[in-house]
Design a protein that fits this description.
437 residues; Glycerol-3-phosphate (1)-acyltransferase; PH-domain like; eight-stranded mixed sheet
């Protein structure tokens, strides 16, 4: 999928009126049928099936909040099939509306700005529940999983459930991540995809619980590790390209400790510095093929991609606490301000440290600062709209998509750093307003 791009000066883009929300449209039978029909072939290819638990509790015309883990583009096809008989709206990133707002609105999509306080989104969801009497599908992780485990959730999610006062349905997929992992460059693999649909919370249960208790329930539902699931269930992935791009997730060598030296290609991950070689087996196990190497100590099993990624997070946390973390890179900049186009505005410099982000450039026209306290995570993506790996920051009026000129810069590391810096700035027992919903 691509995005409509126009080149403008930053001054021209600044003069544009920022996007203003419009009330969500009803999802008609035609558009529901179209979504299901378009999804059919892909789901047949992955032999999709699902099971239900407690769904008889949900009234036929009762609006509900559908929460779903976010693994790949297959997720929307799954939802369109499972809920084909129920009108529902889909919380969708604003950049998805660029150049195709008319279509997305008729599909029932609601625009959202990722990882920033978005009160218009909350109002839109309330309008769907209370006025349209229709359901809303949300991916509360707000981003695809990089490493096959759950992405952090907003601390305000329990408060949101108490505000909405509608039943909560949980959809958990398995196989979708391994069929089309984000790191693998849009190469789909032959993996069976399944889902479990569960009636999770009733309005009366939501009313009787505190926001904290509700948040704990949701976070428990989003506790998973797709790599462990693969191995425990004997799932074989024999595509020859299964490790392509794996350095986007595994960016630090555990043997020599260096970054930007790993390369995933075919079924192998190789360090160009210390020449250690790993093979990603058909069962998802990383087997070190270089004898005599010493791995870091600690509670890590480096045969799992997810454990290796957890070790990288701990390394970054130490960099942050020791005051060593610092990013200063040249970037190409695209701005999303409305849905007419994404605007290529020129070059700049992106700095990230314990205080947050600083983005300057466009001949001195752009100077944006973002506090580290703004959000608990970061919108970062691989191969964004087939342009490149990117880091997104911004506010309700403008969002800046920064593409590192040095292609070895790892955007996953920046996301991990944002999360660890936020934890140091905002104690975990303090509730933040910087939510995805």
């Amino acid at each position: 999928m691509k995005i409509k791009i126009k080149s403008k000066s930053y001054a021209e883009v600044s003069a544009l009126s920022p996007y203003k929300n419009k009330k969500p449209c009803r999802q008609t039978a035609f558009w529901k049928f179209l979504m299901k029909t378009v999804s059919k072939k892909d789901l047949e290819d992955c032999r999709f099936s699902y099971t239900s638990e407690g769904m008889e509790k949900l009234g036929k015309d009762e609006p509900c909040l559908i929460l779903m883990n976010h693994s790949s583009s297959t997720d929307l096809e799954i939802a369109a099939t499972i809920f084909a008989d129920r009108p529902f709206h889909i919380v969708t990133t604003l950049d998805g509306f660029v150049g195709k707002e008319w279509l997305l609105r008729r599909l029932g999509c609601i625009p959202a700005r990722k990882f920033i306080t978005d009160l218009p989104l909350v109002k839109d969801m309330m309008y769907c529940f209370k006025d349209l009497k229709e359901s809303v599908l949300m991916y509360p992780e707000a981003s695809y999983s990089f490493d096959g485990t759950a992405t952090g959730l907003p601390s305000s999610i329990g408060k949101s459930l108490k505000l909405f006062k509608v039943p909560v349905i949980m959809v958990t997929t398995t196989g979708a991540f391994h069929r089309d992992p984000l790191y693998n460059g849009l190469q789909k693999r032959d993996v069976k995809v399944t889902a479990k649909v569960k009636y999770l919370l009733s309005p009366s249960e939501i009313e009787s619980m505190s926001a904290g208790e509700l948040g704990d329930i949701i976070k428990k539902e989003f506790s998973f590790d797709h790599w462990r699931w693969q191995r425990e269930n004997g799932i074989k992935i024999d595509e020859s390209f299964r490790a392509d791009g794996l350095e986007r997730v595994l960016f630090r060598c555990p043997v020599c400790g260096k970054e930007r030296v790993l390369k995933g290609s075919g079924a192998s991950l190789v360090c160009s510095s210390c020449h250690t070689n790993w093979e990603l087996s058909e069962s998802g196990e990383l087997n070190c093929k270089t004898p005599g190497v010493t791995m870091p100590k600690g509670n890590y099993d480096f045969s799992y991609v997810s454990d290796w990624y957890r070790w990288e997070r701990d390394c970054i946390k130490k960099e942050v606490t020791d005051g060593r973390y610092y990013l200063d890179i040249p970037v190409d900049i695209i701005v999303v301000k409305d849905t007419n186009a994404a605007y290529r505005v020129g070059e700049g410099r992106l700095i990230h440290n314990k205080n947050g982000f600083s983005l300057t450039g466009c001949g001195g026209e752009l100077d944006y600062q973002q506090s580290a306290k703004i959000s608990y995570s970061l919108y970062a993506d691989y191969y964004w709209y087939e342009i490149g790996d990117m880091i997104s920051i911004g506010n309700m009026n403008e969002q800046y998509y920064c593409f590192p000129k040095d292609k070895s810069i790892n955007v996953a590391k920046v996301r991990l750093a944002v999360e660890e810096i936020y934890k140091l700035n905002i104690p975990q027992n303090v509730k933040s307003a910087s939510a995805a919903i």
